[in-house]
Design brief:
Elements: H1 6-15, E1 19-21, E2 33-35, H2 37-56, E3 61-62, E4 68-70, H3 71-77, H4 79-82, E5 84-89, E6 96-98, H5 99-105, H6 119-128, E7 146-149, E8 153-155, E9 163-166, H7 171-175, H8 178-184, E10 191-200, E11 215-225, E12 241-245, H9 247-251, E13 257-260, H10 261-266, H11 273-288, E14 296-300, E15 312-319, E16 329-339, H12 341-349, E17 356-370, H13 375-382, H14 386-399, E18 408-413, E19 416-421, E20 428-439, E21 442-449, H15 450-461, E22 462-467, E23 470-475, E24 486-490, H16 497-510, E25 515-517, H17 523-532, E26 537-541, H18 543-548, E27 550-555, E28 561-565, H19 569-578
Parallel strand pairs: 3-10, 12-14, 24-25, 24-26
Antiparallel strand pairs: 1-2, 4-9, 5-6, 5-7, 8-9, 10-11, 11-21, 12-13, 14-15, 15-16, 16-21, 17-20, 18-19, 22-23, 26-27, 27-28
Amino acid sequence: MSGVTADSLVELAKRRGFFLQSAGAYGGVSGFYTFGPQGAAMKRNVEETWRERFAIREGHMEVDAPTVLPEPVFEASGHLDGFDDMLVECPECGQSHRADHIVEDDPDTGIEEAESLAPDRVEEVIAEYELVCPTCGAGLAGQTIEQFNLMFETNIGPGSSSPGYLRPETAQGIFIEFPQLAEYARNQLPFGVTQIGRAYRNEISPRKSLLRVREFTQAELELFIDPAADEPDLSAVADVTARFYSAEAQDGDGEPVEMPVGEAFDEGVVADPWIAYYLGVAAEWYSAIGVDMDRFRFRQHRPGELAHYSEDCWDAEGEVSDPGADPDWIELGGFAYRSDYDLSKHDTHSEADFTVFKQYDEPVTVEKPTVDPEMGYLGPEFGGAAGDVADALEALAEDDPDAFAGEDVTVEVDGETYTVPVEQTGFAIEELTESGEHIMPHVVEPSLGIDRALYTALDHSYREDEVDGEERTYLELPPAVAPTTVGVFPLMDKDGLGERAREIADELRAAGLSVAYDDSGAIGRRYRRQDEVGTPYCVTVDYDTLEDASVTIRDRDSTEQTRVAADDLASTVAGLVSGDASFRNL
């Protein structure tokens, strides 16, 4: 059975080396965690399964961009102006808190999602329900809510002339390299670029161990598509079943609906085929790393929640509350249709071209309005504004050629209106033969948090039972993500058993398996230690091993044991891990 609580999971994680708060010797620092030996191994395995599913199997590229980028990048992306959280400061103890979290955490408000509310509305809710500081209990009514930018600022090089920021997401490191990445993809859409790396957000009030931190690992895919032509093969994931919690259901106090991905798209629950495709891919991946799909759902963002860049967005959410308590759904990942927002912003702010050339199947003849302004007229007439007026005429001809139908045409430059005789604009309609056009790709983005996925897999795999009259705690982690694949024990470290056990451990390591060797204490205790970190199989070398070259292999979940030939052990364990073999059939 599962009996995990947040406290028991964090205690196990620290005791067994999964994760612990950083800098404990100096009192700790909120929002930063160190992954211990077990956690680092598990995190690496989770990342590798993501890489295999989202990058390798999909045929996408992978990059590794810097974690510090110059200020103009974030001016273009909108993070300098719009990447804020609501901060409220306690008038008594001076502690700062997320105002929307204070509203959400009080059940009397009935507000489950306050981030999309305006700051003045949050102030009203705090006053109406007399909400208090979580630290000291002082009332917060009347306190002004401020917008706090979450990015960590730094300087690139000495002095302060080149400001930079730690990236709040890995995506911008991909977007700014799009012109070169498009060349690597031979300018053929669609193509995807993946990245796994650290991101940084200066959270106002980090909490709940790994669930809200200031440094975390993201696994992101940016898929660049031609919105007029590219569609996924939905049949590959059409039968994958998941729970979908639409914005309409949320607004109408409805419930999540369980259905296959293909049906969710056909019925319009998920409108975009690419989003539907990656929801299916993600559902398979989350299940494969140990997330309980009965405690998992996809929730659509309501209009007030949508990010500035997103036309539609769904979150993957997992429930990690105590058994029997009210559900505590946490965001595990986001699936956004970002349209051409990012590329168009960087195209405008930089000196590079963020379009791709789309070749037509056959050349086409088109009528194109053109202007060739008479600068001998514009110069004396408009002086220093002549060049800008010429540019405005060119833009107007492209956007509204009918504006040149009369005797005069009017354009606006920096708030000033300029009227030009049409005969001085050189306006004409020309027939051109074009072989293609430059288009701005749209972006589909599955963005998944590795740390939260790891935490949720630990939470969902936590088990307690009784074996031989003793209580046992174990992690029912899938072998693909378990920190260690197999534990190897000599029954006793004498009479050559220890030497043979160490040889077997080395042979398994040479076969690419993660091995823990343990000869300390009673064999039952050694089993319990490996059970508690999720090791799926344990091998015991005993006196029969020296006689017939066989060993005992034990299954973590059932605690069943059987004998296998030592020479076949590596291939046997590899088959169990891959799923090609089952323990019962051994």
